[in-house]
Design a protein that fits this description.
The chain is of the alpha/beta class. The chain folds into 2 domains: 352 residues, TIM Barrel (Alpha-Beta Barrel); 84 residues, Sandwich (Immunoglobulin-like), CATH 2.60.40. 30% of the residues lie in helices and 21% in strands. It has 12 helices and 22 strands. The strands form 6 sheets. Strands 14-16-17-22-19-20 form a 6-stranded antiparallel sheet, covered by helices on one side. Strands 4-13-12-11 form a 4-stranded parallel sheet. A 4-stranded parallel sheet has the order 5-8-9-10. A hairpin with a 3-residue loop joins strand 16 and strand 17. Helix 10 runs parallel beside helix 11 and helix 11 packs parallel to helix 12. It is elongated and about 75 Å long. The N terminus is likely disordered.
Length: 471
């Protein structure tokens, strides 16, 4: 792609500059590896050398994270928490626009006992702005979820400002919105999510929804460390997410910014039709969040991730997992959570984050150790130059070991719990250096020598979690 070049002697007025800015943005098509402005290069973007991975501040990057809460901007000790994450090598957090927990504040100001959707609660937006500023200072990527699904159902809906009984702006009769929703979000019984023109076209509600999203964007578009997900675990019409993706992308274009958007569906099976509403629309969803795959375990968990990579291969896009389940809650054990985190790294996933407690391990000491270890291993092998390589392992039992490789240059093998496999090193000629990383101990072992050009047996020094890096 050829960029725009202007003689240095030309003096441009503001109108000309504006036209050039818009034209330049439109000229850069999705996934292009062409010329980019310095500003674009600095922002979170798809790495032009491999569209499966991200780049930030001009360098390819693996996104790894964990946090104590999903709506991180609402916690009181935000800066300390971000420092802990950064010290562990983390650079990825989730920011659900949720206000339902104790100590949270809603985005709207009160008018007596009710909310006024025409006026803002400045404390809410101060917290949000601070989160964006403090994460960007530390080089941490924020994946915003615009609509916090569970804030709009059951007891949370009863106190939500958008509920007609809680605001001075509209009534249930004017909007068709329910005042009570006792069911789980999977039942989709709140018409709030059916307001868009392609569905019920309820402009009375939609104008306040747009106002909320535009207010969010007035802060987020000032920063280069933001990714956008439309919903959390949604089951509603795809038209809802498509509408907001278009809205956000249009607003970004008008601001001269390039943004990346996705949707998160509820079904745990990635082959469910709902996920295709993201997979099949790269013009709207330039990356895919497959967090719900973290309800799976073992070999199935890994195989599904590889299936999703293939399903999204034209065009190739980053796959993120902003929620890795597995903790003291109902979604699998701590052991399951750690396995899932590492398996997704070795399945070529671009971003992995531990879910908040109790459904995940958040950013506790174990999470910090796992993030630090994954950073060590992925940096050592330059994972963004590798591909998942299960075909390079033989004499392997189910869920015994996983391989990523840039054949002839670098290989990494993850063992969830000891084991012994045979690794194909036919493309790697000469002497090779092997280092073991003790995942549980958090340390590298001594360097060993291997001879390339052949298949070699590979077994970690003991049981437990290990990673081998061969270069």
């Amino acid at each position: 792609m050829t960029g725009f070049f202007l003689p240095a002697t030309i003096t441009l007025n503001m109108k000309t500059l504006a036209l050039i800015t818009v034209a330049s943005f439109l000229f850069l098509s999705f996934g292009s590896a062409g010329a980019m402005t310095d500003e674009t290069t600095q922002a979170i973007d798809i790495w032009p050398e491999d569209h499966r991975y991200w780049q930030y501040r001009g360098e390819p990057v693996m996104l790894l994270g964990g946090s104590v809460e999903d709506n991180l901007y609402q916690i009181p000790d935000l800066e300390e928490h971000l420092d802990t994450l950064a010290a562990a090598g983390g650079n990825y957090v989730r920011c659900v626009m949720s206000c339902r927990d104790e100590g949270n504040v809603w985005p709207f100001a009160r008018d007596g006992d009710l909310y006024d959707l025409e006026r803002w609660n400045e404390e809410h937006w101060r917290r949000f702005a601070t989160c964006l500023e403090e994460t960007e200072k530390r080089g941490i990527i924020v994946q915003i979820e615009v609509w916090a699904t569970f804030d709009f159902y059951r007891g949370n809906w009863a106190r939500n400002p958008f509920n007609p009984v809680n605001n001075v702006n509209y009534t249930a009769e004017e909007t068709g919105l329910p005042t009570v929703v006792d069911s789980h979000p999977v039942r989709t019984e709140n018409n709030f999510f059916w307001s868009v023109p392609a569905e019920k076209n309820v402009e009375t509600v939609l104008k306040y929804q747009r106002r909320f999203v535009d207010k969010l964007l007035s802060y987020s578009l000032q920063h280069d460390n933001v990714l956008y997900c439309m919903d959390n675990e949604t089951s509603v019409t795809p038209e809802w997410g498509w509408y907001w993706a278009r809205h956000i992308r249009r607003a970004a274009e008008e601001a001269g910014k390039k943004v990346h958007t996705t949707e998160m569906w509820d079904p745990h099976n990635l082959r469910h039709e709902m996920h295709s509403y993201t997979f099949d629309h790269p013009e709207l969803f330039t990356f895919c969040d497959i967090s719900q795959n973290n309800h799976q375990t073992g070999q199935t968990h890994y195989d599904n991730a590889l299936w999703a990579r293939e399903r999204t291969s034209d065009p190739a896009r980053p796959l993120n997992t902003v929620k890795t389940y597995g903790g003291e809650g109902p979604h699998g054990s701590v052991y399951n959570g750690v396995e899932r985190f590492w398996r997704h790294v070795f399945a070529g996933i671009a971003a992995a984050r531990f879910h908040r407690p109790p459904s995940g391990i958040g950013l506790n000491e174990l999470a910090q150790k796992m993030i630090r270890g994954a950073r060590e291993v992925t940096d050592a092998v330059e994972v963004w130059r590798c591909e998942p390589a299960p075909q390079m392992l033989s004499d392997r039992e189910e869920n015994e070991a996983y391989c990523i490789a840039d054949p002839g240059r670098a290989y990494a093998v993850y063992f969830p719990d000891g084991g012994r496999v045979t690794l194909d090193l036919l493309d790697a000629k000469g002497e090779l250096a092997l280092r073991w990383y003790d995942i549980d101990g958090g340390a590298w072992g001594a360097t060993e020598e291997l001879t390339g050009g052949q298949a070699v047996p590979l077994a970690p020094p003991s049981g437990g979690r290990w990673a081998a890096v061969i270069k």
